[in-house]
Structures are given as C-alpha cells and as structure tokens.
Amino acid sequence: MRSILQALLATTLLFVGTATARYDDTPYMGCTGVPNNSPVLDLPATPLKTVPNGQSWKMEQDTNFVYIAKLSGTPYQMGYAYGQLFGKEIGDNFNNVLNYGYTKLESILSKFGIPEVMIYYIWSQAQPAVLYLLDLNWQIAEPWIPQRFVDELRGIADGSGGAVTEQNIRRANMLPELTQAACSIVGSWGAASQDGKLYHLRALDWEPTAPVNQYPSVVIYEPSEEGSETFANIGYLGLIGSLTAMSKLGISVGEKVFYARAGDYEDPPHITYYGKPWAFHLRDTVQFAKNLADVEQMLFNVNRTMMIHLGYGSLPDKAFRGHDYAANFVIPYDDKNYTHYSQAHPQLDGIFYYDRQVQPSGSPCIGSILNATHGSVNPATMYRDIAGYDETGNAQVIVMDPEAQEIWATWSQYGASVNAYERSPMHIKLADFWGAGMKCGGGGFLSA
Ligand SMILES: *[C@@H]1O[C@H](CO)[C@@H](O)[C@H](O)[C@H]1NC(C)=O
Ligand SMILES: *[C@@H]1O[C@H](CO)[C@@H](O)[C@H](O)[C@H]1NC(C)=O
Ligand SMILES: CC(=O)N[C@H]1CO[C@H](CO)[C@@H](O)[C@@H]1O
What we know:
Elements: H1 2-12, E1 46-51, E2 54-61, E3 64-73, H2 75-109, H3 116-141, H4 147-159, H5 166-178, E4 184-188, E5 199-204, E6 216-223, E7 231-236, E8 244-247, E9 251-257, H6 278-288, H7 292-300, E10 308-314, E11 319-325, E12 330-333, E13 351-354, H8 365-373, H9 379-390, E14 396-401, E15 406-411, E16 426-429, H10 431-434
Parallel strand pairs: 3-6
Antiparallel strand pairs: 1-2, 2-3, 4-5, 4-13, 5-14, 6-7, 7-8, 8-9, 9-10, 10-11, 11-12, 14-15, 15-16
Bound molecules: 2-acetamido-2-deoxy-beta-D-glucopyranose (3 copies).
One 2-acetamido-2-deoxy-beta-D-glucopyranose binds at residues 331-334, 337, 339.
Signal peptide: 1-21
Keywords: Signal
InterPro entries: DCD1A/B-like
C-alpha cells in the first residue's frame, strides 16, 4: 500500500528537489554551499489575540516572520483556543497545501505539453483520491491515535468558528505520515561543544516553495494532563504532531526519512500504516518524557509505523542520541557506537549526526565541519556553517539550546524561492513565553 499511496502523493503534493552544487572551493571537504551570514534577528513579539486558554503573537521583520501561540488546559481546551487564535490561518494553510498540489502537477504536466484544461481535469480527478487516502490513513491508524489528539483536533475545528472543518484538520495532520522528508540531524554535547553545552540542529529538507511557509509557527503547550511537560511544537500552523519540538524540561526532537540499502540491516526495516502515526508519537515523547530512558522506553513500546531517523537531545542527561526507527525495530546510537562510521562519517566524541543524504552517506561535508570545529561547536556552527555549507534545511532550520531554552529558527521565504538555510535566523527565547508570570491573559513585557 505504501507504494500506491506514495506514488499518488508524489505526483500531486510532493516534489523533493535535489540540491545542485554551486561552489567547489569551500574550506570543508565535500561541501557545496556557503556559510549563512544573514544576521540573527532578535525581534519583539507583537501580541495578536488573547482568549480564555491561549494567547498569540507574531514576530516580524521584512520577509521574516513567525506566529507564536501559547495554549493551556485539556486537549480540547487547547485545541479550542488554537482554533480561536488561528482558525482562519489553519484553514488557509490546508487550502495552501491543496493548491500547491495543483500548481506542482501543472508545472510537471505542462512540460509534457499537456493543455491546462486537461491538467485541471486530471487534478479534479486526483484531488478526491488524495483526500480519500488521507481519510483512509486516519481510519486505519485511528485505533492507535490517543484520544488527546482527537480531542485537540475537534477543539480546533470548534474554536475556528467554521474556518476549518474537523475532517480537513485531520487530513492535514495525516500528511506527515504519508510524506517523510529528507533532512539533517546533528547533536553536539560534552567534549564537542563550546562550554560543554547540548545543542541540537534540525534541518528540514522538504519543498522550500510549498506555501505552508505562509504560516511558520512555534506553538507552546501547557497541558493540564497529568505527567505532561510544557513544550514548544515548532513547525507550521495546524500541524499538531511534531516534526521538531522541545520541552521546557529539555527534551528535543527532530527526524528525517530513513531509507535502507539492501544488506544494511540484518533485519531489514519496514513500515506499516497500522500503528500510531509517528508525528503524534514524537510529540508524546516530548510531552511526557523526563529523560532519555523514558524516550527510549516510549519508542520501543509503541506500534510504530514509518521508517525515520530520529535525533533526541536531553538536558537532564546532558546527552544526545540518534535512532533508526521502523515498524519492526528501534536502534539507539550514542557518540561511540553508530554502526555506519566511515571516512566520510568519522566518530567524534560528543557528536551524533545524520546528513541529508541516504544513510550511511558518502558526503564528508558535515563530518569535516564537525571535525574541524570539535570542542567549540555552538549554535552558529549549526545554522551558519553546517546548514549553509551543506545546503541543508531548505524548508526549515531550527537550532535548539535546551539549557538556555532558546531556539534559532528560519523557514523558507513565503512566496519566493529562498531556502531557509540562506535566511536570517530568528532568535526566540522560549522562556519569555512559558516563563513565570506569563500565564495566559497577561500581555506583560512582550508587548514591545
Ligand atoms: C549505543 O549505546 C547506547 C548507550 O549509550 C545504548 O543504549 C545503545 O543500545 C547502543 N547502540 C548500539 C547499536 O550498540
Ligand atoms: C580531522 O581533523 C584533523 C586535524 O585536526 C585532520 O588531521 C583529520 O584529517 C580530519 N579528519 C577528517 C575526517 O576530516
Ligand atoms: C504497544 C502496543 O500497542 N502494542 C501492540 C501492537 O500491536 C499488536 C498487534 O498487532 C498488539 O498485540 C500489541 O499489544
């Protein structure tokens, strides 16, 4: 079934571009890009709206912007507040994805000389099929979807006052299940980092011109559910699963698609649709885990679906782990025991990474940057050097500092072909939003 689902999506919604080499003479081996020297932006957060269980802000300068929300309460209450704050934008974002599917199809088919009216006809036939697949995926996975996600999605639809339907918001949230992106994951800690701090880079290589970048977002959840931690879900408005997230306690996550070459794993990895959608599960690890042992326990004890590589940072452990995650196994790795070290991918104390290629990758770029900067890796090494030189993170580049509770975040430019890894990182101090004295309703010092 994967092949049918993915083939259909490939021709409608998806188009994973390949980066082209533009520069040969970088100081690092195998790198094709240039450092991202765009200035870091420290922007004021302008309050947008306050509702009983939530508040929203926007940071903005020229073409750089991010929507921020803080939600608290039960899953339904948080969803309802989310819908009240951003229902219209979430509805727009769903339409953006669908329209994008049409534009993409048109740009592919028009190259074959297929007339516009014919393309429109094909799309009118394909669109219901795509929606059907998203509905089907929800139905198949439903027995494994925790009630809290169902309630939050229903809350969003109810709170949006008709701007987005429950069915469409569910559909949007099945997209990650059907399309895992390329991407890079880098963790640096201990011996590798400046001051021994833990830093986590999550670079998302998907489709930089997909108009979901109209609504880049940081959504802070303060769930009242027992055992929950406050956390920030970093991505796009309306996607309630996690592609990138960090808790106040200091658990951070990022992922990338996992392809395996024949013979790479004794037990070849596989996928299934019968299980808990991975983006929902990643979010739950950040909401509930107190340390790496909890994370791993949660990764092992769940009915997994897709094949992805994961990076987890943990401030309580002051460490980072990579994981190969598939329906049939999970393998954790630290900085000493990755099973695919090579000349291009050296073992380095306090470093774990996967680059944006299929793993194990023959590209020495990230390895040579980390080898050269070993002992002094800091956030700029990640957003400026690794993302820039390796041209990774065309859609999103997020550097997380769990100790300082800060992130540096960029998304591709809305309405233009500018990759996230070329743009100004927005420096966001999460403690300003989830810190003491910032309960919902108080505009406080953020009303700059
Ligand atoms: C690598 O080491 C970690 C502990 O640091 C362990 O949990 C994991 O199972 C090891 N992985 C492999 C592949 O040996
Ligand atoms: C790592 O850096 C050392 C010098 O500090 C150099 O000798 C070595 O060749 C480098 N290795 C890689 C894989 O880049
Ligand atoms: C943790 C979990 O939900 N495990 C279930 C996975 O699915 C099988 C059946 O396919 C169940 O037996 C497990 O309990």
